Amino acid sequence: MGISLHTMHKRILSEIWIYPIKSMGGIRLRSSKVMDKGLQYDRRWMLVDEEGVFLTQRLSPRMALFNISIDTIKKQLTVSIDNDHYTLSMQPPDSPVIRAKIWDDEVDVTEVSAECSKWFSDKLNMKCRLVSFPEHNPRPVNPLFASNNEQVSLADGYPILVIGEQSLADINARLQDPVPMNRFRPNFIFTGGAAYEEDTWKNFRIGRNRFLGVKPCGRCIMTTINQQTAEQGKEPLATLSTYRKRDNKIYFGQNVLAIDHHEVTEGDEIILE
Q1: Domain total in the chain
Q2: pTM of this structure
Q3: pLDDT tens for residues 85-132?
Q4: For 25, 66, 68, 256, which has the most beta carbons within 10 A of its beta carbon?
Q5: Alpha carbon 142 to chain centroid distance?
Q6: Rounded CA separation 184/116 (Å)
Q7: Cα–Cα distance between 93 and 87 in angstroms, integer?
Q8: CATH number for the domain that contains residue 89
């Protein structure tokens, strides 16, 4: 019995990922609630330096080696590296407000604890603090691309990133050594459709949620850092630059805003409107 044309062209949400601490390990979820700032628990914490400026793998590739696990019952995050771990509460800390800088934005955050910050400082061999970004604290999406004063967490600029498996397959067909999807840190991965078709997505639905694609995602050197070893190379950015570059930026994936705030589940069909 043959596969119908409709089934072949179905787009299915195949994986859901969150990255609770900015620039550290991701967690794959079977389902997730869409919140005002993006997926629940996604990039609600980050490291800042002594001046309150955000830290990422761009400055410290070793951040790739921190693995994160989440316990939503106990409301705890556990961070692991070098056979050591630290567990912190996901409840908002009772600490003074700190003004932190992330790209061109300034946001109000709170330090998780002095003990927690010391643990991260020791592991990275640099003075830093782990801070929490409370759900009610504002950080508007760039008004040039917002449709209804949408907010974003501590992600670089947009609440959700979507990438198709066909897009990854296309870049990997051009590379001598294929790279995994974790180089690109998407929230939603989907099967079906054509390579890079997400570039053109505008209005679409996943489950009960409506989403709006607003602009392709410009990529940086973080894509060249091996997330298992923290070693840095030239790929896949060098190859992407040969055919995915325009206006001096290299694009891979689509930035997305959420219109509705319900749960999404792996296996949900994606409907383009």
Answers
A1: 1
A2: 0.95
A3: 999 999 988 999 999 999 999 999 999 999 999 999 999 999 999 999
A4: 256
A5: 17
A6: 28
A7: 14
A8: 2.40.33.20
